[in-house]
Amino acid sequence: MGVQQLKLESVRRKTGGRIHLTPRVPRSGPVTTLCGQTLAAGSFAPVEAEADCANCIRRSQDQGRISGAFFAQDEGSELLRLSLEQAKFRKPQRAGDSPRPGAPERPVVWPTAKPPAEAIPDRLGELVTRGFRPAGDGVWRSPGGVVVKMRKQGKEWRFEELVFEGSVIATRVDEGMRMRAGDVEVNPMDDGFEVQLKKG
User: Fold this and answer.
1) Structural domain includes residue 107
2) pTM of the model
């Protein structure tokens, strides 16, 4: 499928800065750009101007990255619609295979589009990945909509930021502070934190 058929949208922080590309600018919630940034809900706006983020522009030429971005934003159905639309114009004809007059045309059954299978480890540094979905470079999303940002320090991934629009409960515990946001729990450990989905 041609990359040019996928319509990417432009988005920019309300405070200004670079114009990024994304599969779709959502009406609510955060947005993930092609260059892997997650802009928090309410901090961005769609723009009509051309993108000027060099990473977004470069990645917009990479069909695999664009497909991955569509699936990260639950836009996989748009990819499937485009591939089905394109398939209508490409009827496979085998050599010497002319349909018999009056023979009914058999419908073509296309397999459902699937995101590229990536092996996700059980743990990524301080993040227990079970139940989380990758949503960009170092960005993970829980089923309840909590966005967790991890940063690589040396060879180790460390918890950096949590974004959630609902209530957050912080409780002092012996080792420091425990935080609960939606379906995610951040617990202090010996030399850092452990981020995981709430148990039970």
Assistant:
1) no
2) 0.42
Residues 6+ apart with CB under 8 A from 2: 86
Residue count (the chain): 200
* 95: in domain: no
Last residue of a domain, one of 65, 85, 105: 85
pLDDT digits (tens, 9 = 90+) for 57-102: 888 887 766 766 666 555 545 555 555 666 666 555 555 555 566 6
Domain hosting residue 14, numbered range: 3-85
Q: What is the DSSP string of 129-192?
A: -TT-EE-STTEEE-TTS-EEEEEEETTEEEEEEEE-SS-EEEEEETTEEEEEETTEEEEEETTE
Region 115-142: what's the mean pLDDT? 84
Helix (H) or strand (E) holding 11: strand 9-13
80: which residues sit within 8 A by CB, 6+ positions away? Answer: 110, 112, 113
Q: Which of 40, 37, 188 is nearest to 126 (CA)?
A: 188
